[in-house]
């Protein structure tokens, strides 16, 4: 099963959905309908694994970033792994020093602004 953009998921597509939250086990579930909902709030959280479970569906934590607009459709499924590799130094820094180190680095290097500037 390949990763794909949420907008590219169609009715009758299969998704990995959590059916037992206590064990973290996933099963295929068929998409029965599709709608777009725009809400204000948090987005693009960086996780150690690059994955999230949202409303019971396994999704990538990586949102639209610097390669999304130039990556050929046939290679879009590779984007999460590329972005995960890009974020490896930040994850290592977090493992070594936790939130205090990340806040210090951001105050000196302006990492959030840098990541935003890299976006096309």
Automatic annotation (TrEMBL):
Domain Hedgehog protein Hint stretches: 4-64
Full protein name: Hedgehog protein Hint domain-containing protein
Organism classification: Eukaryota, Viridiplantae, Chlorophyta, core chlorophytes, Chlorophyceae
InterPro entries: Hedgehog_Hint, Hedgehog_Signaling, Hint_dom_sf
Record-level GO BP terms: protein autoprocessing
Matches recorded under Gene3D superfamilies: Hedgehog/Intein (Hint) domain
Pfam families: Hint
Superkingdom assignment: Eukaryota
């Amino acid at each position: 099963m390949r990763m794909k953009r949420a907008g590219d998921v169609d009715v009758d597509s299969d998704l990995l959905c959590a059916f037992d939250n206590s064990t973290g086990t996933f099963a295929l579930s068929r998409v029965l309908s599709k709608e777009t909902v725009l809400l204000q709030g948090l987005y693009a959280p960086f996780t150690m694994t690059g994955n999230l479970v949202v409303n019971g569906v396994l999704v990538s934590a990586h949102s639209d970033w610097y390669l999304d607009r130039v990556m050929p459709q046939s290679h879009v499924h590779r984007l999460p792994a590329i972005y995960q590799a890009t974020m490896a130094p930040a994850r290592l820094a977090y493992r070594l020093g936790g939130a205090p180190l990340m806040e210090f680095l951001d105050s000196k290097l302006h990492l959030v602004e840098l990541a935003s500037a890299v976006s096309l």
